[in-house]
Amino acid sequence: MSTFTNPIIPGFYPDPSCIRVGDVFYMANSSFQFFPGIPIHKSKDLINWELIGNAINRPSQISLNQATTKINNASRREVFTGGIYAPTIRYHNGVFYNVCTNLTGTANMPSNTDFHSSNFIITAIDLSDPNSYSELIYFDFHGIDLSLFFDKNGKVYVQGSWIYEYDQNPATVIRQAEIDVATGQLLTGARDIWSGATGKVPEGPHVYYKDGWYYLLIAEGGTQARHKITMARSRSIWGPFESDPANLVLTAEGSSGVVHCWCVMLARREYGDSYPLGKETFLTSVEWVDGEFPVFKDVKIKQRTKRQVARKTDTKGPVGVHLKWPATLYLRTPLLENYRQDGDEIVLTATDAGFGSPDGTMTFVGRRQTSLGSAASVTTILSSATSENVSYGLALYKDVFRYAAIQYKVHDSTLAVVVQEAGQPLITMSSHPVQDAVSIRLSITSSVEAYRCGAQICFASAPTTDIALGEVPCSAMSSDDFTGTVYAIFASGDGNTMTFRDFEIESK
Question: Which helix (H) or strand (E) holds 385?
């Protein structure tokens, strides 16, 4: 027996879709309100992955400024965010296809209001070349979780979770239409093909063809603890689909994709009520039996398999942040003229928007948190600020309702930690005067229990001082949601520029 460790792609990389082209695997994931969107990884062994680009890498392709967030159910701690949802990656005749959804909302939208869905296709020849990705090809489908199936007869079909209305029963159904992928035109009407094994919010459909059968794999049961993967099959692409007698084939988390004898799916690592990293990409094995439905092995952190697997390459240690790297994130659609890099320095131009802005963008740049044993740190050069109406610093961010920020306010030379929890007022956890400081090294260090905020104050004519700024429990960043935590530097104010040096994130 061999053993590998889940998740295979740690951090906020939900809704995985995976294909194999030759001897290389490619993976696409959701990105929600962050830019660039639809991260693309590649691997030769399914264990070691390299982020090679993003399908949405130009602000001209799409606006994410209406990727708003709503508290869907306060008592169940449900927080839903719009933006880029559940891409599916496919390859056909030398062309890569990503089919996906952009969900848009309004500022302060009520919980009983649905997001608006816009569905599109992006093509590329070379996934590692940002210029290879096309502009968006839109098509009409009232739903989410789109997938493409290229049939042996040359026809192409799109499947998706068709949405009725909020709180209806059933809320969704799996529908399918024939599509022209070059134009986005639907060549047939969308028709129901399966309501799932339980009829509870069927979504995330993918079709696979094997030994004369069309296998339909979906997720259902909601997006959290009742989430599960189910399967059906038919001799016809249009059905009727017969349910797998063994349903449910996987439980707890869903949204999956099958590649030969492996299955990738989203899941989250829970430590009691702490799971701020959100949904990550996990892997398990699949056994195909001739003439029967496939059997999925239960998912574990330490996953055992009869197949030989590669050894995981150690990726721990400090990692810098560079504006041109594909792992670097901005909030919604950025104003790229507000960001400049010179070696190990990043210069940000502040805008009036802040963390509480429900839509649009703010000056914000960072990377996903990939481990609860991690740390982010950056040095702020205080002399670079020439206006008093500005604040800047280091933050831990999930969405407009959940963030913690160490911010330096120029007008009174104070260092403070502000914390926003869902459904709670914004609080200032600590405040320290730092007059006469030349620079400040800010840090956020995480463990399973808490995020610890600190600072090292460098004075021109006094000893360097280390101060503890307080702790934020990981549970404050954990709920039934779609996104994960991001470490970021930020600037908010009247257009002044601020300089940051040596922005590093380390997984321990």
Answer: none
pLDDT band, residue 116 (cuts 50/70/90): very high
Question: Each residue of 373-424: pLDDT tens digit?
Answer: 999 999 998 877 666 788 999 999 999 999 999 999 988 889 999 999 998 9
The CATH label, of 3.40.50.2300, 2.115.10.20, 3.30.1330.10, 3.40.50.150, for the domain at 2-305 is 2.115.10.20
Cβ of 505: how many Cβ atoms within 10 Å?
Answer: 24
In order, the DSSP letters of 431-485 are: EEE-TTEEEEEEEEEE-SSEEEEEEEEEESSS--EEEEEEEEEGGGG-SB-S---
| DSSP-assigned letters across all residues of 401-412 | TEEEEEEEETTT
Predicted confidence at residue 226, as pLDDT, reads 59
Share of the chain above pLDDT 70, in %: 93
Enclosing H/E stretch for 337: none
Dihedral of the alpha carbons of 149, 152, 154, 158, in degrees to the nearest 10: -10
Tell me: domain 319-507, CATH 2.60.120.200, correct? yes
Residue 190 phi, psi dihedral angles, 5° rounding: -75, 130
Cα–Cα distances (Å) from 364 to 332, 486, 490, in that order, read 10, 10, 4
- Residue 496's alpha-carbon distances to 37, 174, 322, 347, 437, in angstroms, are 28, 50, 21, 10, 19
Which is the catalytic residue, given 78, 145, 203, 504? 203
Q: Which pTM was predicted?
A: 0.95
Does the annotation count 203 as an active-site position?
A: yes
Distance of CA 84 to the CA centre of its chain: 8
Question: How many other CB atoms sit within 10 Å of the CB of residue 463?
Answer: 7
**If you average pLDDT over residues 89-108, what whole number do you get?**
96
Domain edges within the chain = 2-305, 319-507
Residue 315 has what pLDDT?
65
- Domains 2-305 and 319-507 equal at CATH topology level: no
421 is catalytic: no
DSSP state of 132: G
User: Is the peptide bond preceding residue 202 cis, with omega within 30 degrees of 0?
Assistant: no
Average pLDDT over all residues of the chain: 92
Q: Residue 1: is its pLDDT beyond 80?
A: no
